[in-house]
Amino acid sequence: xxxxxxxxxxxxxxxxxxxxxxxxxxxxxxxxxxxxxxxxxxxxxxxxxxxxxxxxxxxxxxxxxxxxxxx
Length: 71
Fold this sequence. Notes:
Layout (H helix, E strand, L loop, with lengths): L5 H16 L7 H10 L15 H4 L14
């Protein structure tokens, strides 16, 4: 697989480190799931504006779409 950015590489590395930390037998998926959820920031407000790439937005429907820097 291709990892385009250093951020993605770091994210995958963090995931593998997390799996190694919880490496037990039998595997406790609940503990792993909780650890993954703790590693992400919690959303504190409901966003009125969504910023995403064109690829992420593909197939979604919005009332208004702003595409900056298009000539």
